[in-house]
């Protein structure tokens, strides 16, 4: 090679850098997101809604939790626009910064009292909205980082690495909450302990930024630049020319979202709710409070640190089967593999009360089965959704599909599940049927979509 050619030879992302950068970024993002999710169950109802009844405070906390999912489609449009016009790297750095700053500031919010009675919940809503914007742009960029740099027959395998950020981030966040609840008194935890994970996010953001700033653009996006195929408005082009795969991708993700937020946020609420009025009364008296049985809904009555540990065990299965899903999706094809997994989710929804109702042992079995299915369905998404779109609108198309699904799948999941549990006076049959319905809608979308395993991501530019 001549010196001139050496001078212009493009840099390439190494395999290790691609996989680590795609995983560390989503780990940071999901750590921040799940730190909020856990606090929304353990702390925020009492901290920001002290005058509401227990169940209404939980519902209010989940309503704010859902604000991020409303923001996510907007984030997907904003970050998708710049990701398809300017490149993946800068967009990924910006989304990580936004998530980190918003999460860090949540740790400084005061309780809703005095002058902060209205301001504290309002500030929480705004910061939660910022988290949603950031996650709206993060996932698709990380998925493209992995899959656009992968060999053709290993895209689903590479794509599992950004997906691993979800279980890893969840485990780190919840291990911190378990440790804090173990070593802090109840008063210390409510006063300052819950804030530690939000402060810790700053350390993780620095690590993520350091790795991502070393990346170079993928050859797929470079080809878009070389062919001068960058579109003026990626969102408009996506909606005009690629609305069908966008709609299909939205419903392909639906069962995954419903399953995950039932397995995490809802089960934590249900599992730690007292199993009887007597247990609730004793718990209130231990805190020096009077228990009001009005609107009481029985749960499993498991101690919070114990149930968080159960969740962490379940999420380990989530991580393991996320990795397992990659080779399987390559061997059988994304579509066929996901049809089988989604059918499993449907059956699990119909059998929900066999696991969430009898007691702690059944609940542990349910968490393991549910999180196993979660890993199998979530793992292939980082390959399947981007493969539905050409390179010049791939960031926008996959991000919009993924995050529109969050609005109809994830945002209402915890809120609807709590309402169904309340309507059932403690029976969770309605929750299982809700999950089964999500699985049916996903199956319809899968049957209407082609398999994408053999498409060429680098050459497909429109």
UniProtKB/TrEMBL annotation:
<dbReference type="InterPro" id="IPR005829">
    <property type="entry name" value="Sugar_transporter_CS"/>
</dbReference>
<protein>
    <submittedName>
        <fullName>MFS transporter</fullName>
    </submittedName>
</protein>
<feature type="transmembrane region" description="Helical">
    <location>
        <begin position="115"/>
        <end position="135"/>
    </location>
</feature>
<keyword id="KW-0472">Membrane</keyword>
<dbReference type="InterPro" id="IPR020846">
    <property type="entry name" value="MFS_dom"/>
</dbReference>
<dbReference type="Pfam" id="PF07690">
    <property type="entry name" value="MFS_1"/>
</dbReference>
<feature type="transmembrane region" description="Helical">
    <location>
        <begin position="337"/>
        <end position="356"/>
    </location>
</feature>
<feature type="transmembrane region" description="Helical">
    <location>
        <begin position="307"/>
        <end position="325"/>
    </location>
</feature>
<feature type="transmembrane region" description="Helical">
    <location>
        <begin position="18"/>
        <end position="37"/>
    </location>
</feature>
<dbReference type="InterPro" id="IPR011701">
    <property type="entry name" value="MFS"/>
</dbReference>
<keyword id="KW-1003">Cell membrane</keyword>
<feature type="transmembrane region" description="Helical">
    <location>
        <begin position="57"/>
        <end position="79"/>
    </location>
</feature>
<feature type="domain" description="Major facilitator superfamily (MFS) profile">
    <location>
        <begin position="18"/>
        <end position="453"/>
    </location>
</feature>
<feature type="transmembrane region" description="Helical">
    <location>
        <begin position="156"/>
        <end position="180"/>
    </location>
</feature>
<feature type="transmembrane region" description="Helical">
    <location>
        <begin position="362"/>
        <end position="385"/>
    </location>
</feature>
<feature type="transmembrane region" description="Helical">
    <location>
        <begin position="427"/>
        <end position="448"/>
    </location>
</feature>
<dbReference type="InterPro" id="IPR036259">
    <property type="entry name" value="MFS_trans_sf"/>
</dbReference>
<feature type="transmembrane region" description="Helical">
    <location>
        <begin position="397"/>
        <end position="421"/>
    </location>
</feature>
<feature type="transmembrane region" description="Helical">
    <location>
        <begin position="192"/>
        <end position="213"/>
    </location>
</feature>
<keyword id="KW-0813">Transport</keyword>
<feature type="transmembrane region" description="Helical">
    <location>
        <begin position="91"/>
        <end position="109"/>
    </location>
</feature>
<keyword id="KW-1133">Transmembrane helix</keyword>
<keyword id="KW-0812">Transmembrane</keyword>
<feature type="transmembrane region" description="Helical">
    <location>
        <begin position="247"/>
        <end position="268"/>
    </location>
</feature>
